Amino acid sequence: MIRGAGDVSIDSFGQLVAATTGDSINYDFGSTPRSHIQSGVYTATEYPAHQTIPLHNEQSYTNIWADYLWFYCEKAALSGGATTLADSREIFRKIPASIRQKFMDKGVMYVRNYGSGYDLDWQKVFNTTDRQEVENFCRKRDIQFEWKNEDELTTTQVCQAHTVHKITGETVWFNQAHLFHVSSLAPEIREALVEILGVEGLPRNACYGDGSTIEDSILDEIRGIYEENTVVFPWQAGDIMLVDNVLAAHGRQAFEGDRKVYVMMT
């Protein structure tokens, strides 16, 4: 972390990133709303200020992800808005062995439905309006896809529950089952969406890799482990932070006021 870097421009932020961890990558197959500022630079996830973003490893819901995340704070929130962090090695170690092994054996299946109006549409997620480009992307990434009509698409992908850091050789917990699963929703929202769309029509959901249901209680236990191992990083204007995306999960606290934090992935 660099504290008090001063009046850093977006261009100089990009130059710093390129000179240290290499070229940036695009936010393809994204799961959250964010704006593309310029080459490789995006806003941090644009969830409403009153919402908390749970701890997660970026793009661990798919099979290709960024090694490093760079954050730059142009303007800190009036209150709140801290970035939360947790050691993914500790999360792996503290999840009970029986739960851990079940996930490791089966993996995690992510199901996403686009076009219902309750989540990102496929054009935003795949950064294109060309259906053929979407299909090519899915085939390359081993993502199953089904077009329901002109504007509705379902994708299914089975991915890892854990991974091994390619430099340190350490095993880490690496998935987003606790975010995608329907139990992550507030009870009243969950009931309303299931009533309107049915379980199979939910904008996103997660199950074990064999298609069987992940128990709510297990995911609640995993969320508790994340919470117990959370470290809070409060931002100041001019701060720059580098996160190893495999070794550390990150999230965001709710906040008040204007908050401008940018991210680059390499």
TrEMBL record:
Keyword Oxidoreductase among record annotations: yes
InterPro entries: AlphaKG_dependent_hydroxylases, TauD-like_sf, TauD/TfdA-like
Domain TauD/TfdA-like: 25-264
Molecular function terms from GO: 2-oxoglutarate-dependent dioxygenase activity
GO BP terms in the entry: antibiotic biosynthetic process
Highest taxon listed in the record's lineage: Bacteria
Cofactor(s) the record lists: Fe(2+)
Sorted UniProt keywords: Antibiotic biosynthesis, Oxidoreductase
Pfam families per record: TauD
Keyword Transmembrane attributed: no
UniProt xrefs under PANTHER family: GAMMA-BUTYROBETAINE HYDROXYLASE-RELATED, TAUD_TFDA-LIKE DOMAIN-CONTAINING PROTEIN
Name recorded for this polypeptide: TauD/TfdA-like domain-containing protein
